[in-house]
Write a structure and sequence with these properties.
The complex is a heterodimer of chains A (207) and B (198). Chain A has 207 residues and is mostly helical. Helices cover 63% and strands 2% of the residues of chain A. The longest helix of chain A is centred in the last third of the chain and has 31 residues. Classes of the chains: A mainly alpha (207), B mainly alpha (198). Chains A and B meet through helix 2, helix 4 and helix 8 of A and helix 2, helix 4, helix 7 and helix 9 of B.
Chain lengths: 207, 198
């Protein structure tokens, strides 16, 4: 049991990473990574949602009719996202405003739905909770890396603290839309070319 | 007349200036997965335009006439996604009954649409920007058209150029698609300021 839990956890960080292997949840990967602080909030929200919705789906899996299961899963996920949204609006209204619709869009983040469909429907609750949380963590560290690069080079700061001196000219393109695409593309390219050894994903491994 | 011009401005800004895919990054998953051929992209694009044009005003009505009088705004996410899913389901059944060819061309894309974040995103943006009912229809249509434009352009590039080109290892597939999307986003930044700005 212990070994299996660990395996499930590690798979989501590396070989089955939702962002750079499965190319899921790209919308928010691109949208919220211009400032590190917002990214962290978004990541915590996603870990919370994925873990708990996977757990709930797994607990209910015997009673979910297979024809309407997508609908049931979406409702469960939406319930948890509402909780995240209310907490965020109560304690950090400024971040909530900056994130705008992207908190609500956790509902349609393919990672959450993907874990529910692919894992939680056929595994026990505890393992599904671990799997969901691991997928969230796998997503989070990629996002934080991208966010650090974008904020550092785009605004010269990390977490709002000035790191690069006055000599640094901001690459403002990096905090705008095109920069997000380029940074993520370079990141995926690097991982696929250098880190991943198996040639299998090279064949246009879409989601 | 000025009213008409205003709607045109909302439409143009939804298609170009604040293109839902290239500036708000919504609908990326299906954008990357389906943009391999022009024909399928056209089918999915058309389905997105249609669903968005209807669900935006539909969600507006639900939000303004049901949720706000009852002070249930916090249920917005769950209600919006249910409205979208239900609409897509009904649409799928109608299309299946009415026309076999249309179902064969469009029907297969409909289930993909429920989980397309651009649809839900458009409804949420419409609330944040406080559009009226008529504006939300125009905005929904414009966003759909913008998304379709982006996926068609992408499919054109992928089908004509990328599929024949030799790429360095690891750059094939999603990575190069993202680079192309980034260059397209750069080009679309040239539209900013058009349509009254945002």
């Amino acid at each position: 049991m212990q070994g299996k839990t660990k395996k499930v956890f590690l798979a989501n960080l590396g070989a089955d990473n939702p962002v750079f292997v499965q190319i899921l949840g790209i919308c928010s990967t691109l949208a919220v990574t211009n400032v590190v602080r917002n990214t962290l909030v978004m990541c915590l929200g996603l870990i919370f949602t994925t873990a708990l919705s996977s757990w709930t789906v797994s607990v209910l899996r015997r009673w979910i009719p297979s024809r309407t299961r997508m609908m049931v899963e979406v409702m469960i996920i939406a319930g948890y996202v509402i909780v995240v949204d209310i907490i965020l609006r109560a304690f950090h209204p400024d971040i909530s405003r900056q994130l705008g619709p992207y908190v609500g869009l956790i509902i349609t983040n393919c990672i959450v739905m993907g874990r529910a469909e692919a894992f939680a429907l056929s595994n026990r609750p505890w393992l599904s909770l671990v799997d969901g949380a691991a997928a969230g963590v796998g997503y989070s560290y990629v996002l934080l890396l991208i966010a650090v690069v974008r904020e550092l080079m785009g605004s010269g700061t990390v977490w709002g603290v000035r790191v690069l001196g006055a000599w640094w000219t901001n690459w403002s393109i990096l905090v705008m839309a095109p920069g997000a695409f380029f940074v993520l593309a370079l990141f995926i390219w690097f991982i696929r070319a250098k880190v991943m050894k198996q040639p299998e994903p090279a064949k246009g491994a879409g989601p | 007349m000025s009213e008409l011009l205003y709607f045109l401005a909302v439409l143009l800004s939804a298609v170009f200036t604040s293109n839902i895919l290239l500036t708000n990054y919504l609908g990326m998953c299906s954008f990357l997965a389906v943009s391999k051929e022009i024909k399928t992209s056209l089918g999915l694009g058309a389905a997105v335009v249609f669903v968005m044009a209807i669900t935006c005003p539909l969600n507006w009505m639900v939000s303004a006439w049901v949720l706000e009088p009852l002070h249930l705004e916090y249920l917005r996410f769950i209600v919006f996604i249910v409205v979208i899913a239900a609409f897509v389901q009904v649409l799928e059944m109608i299309v299946e009954r009415v026309s076999e060819t249309l179902y064969a061309n469009l029907g297969i894309f409909l289930p993909l649409i429920t989980v397309n974040c651009a649809i839900l995103g458009a409804s949420l943006f419409m609330i944040i920007r406080k559009y009226t009912l008529a504006e939300s229809f125009v905005y929904g249509t414009g966003s759909g058209l913008g998304w379709m434009l982006a996926i068609l352009a992408m499919a054109g590039i992928r089908q004509e150029k990328l599929n024949q080109s030799k790429l360095p290892r690891g750059l094939e597939g999603p990575a190069i698609a993202l680079v192309v999307a980034g260059i397209m986003a750069l080009a679309f930044m040239g539209f900013s300021g058009m349509g009254g700005g945002n």
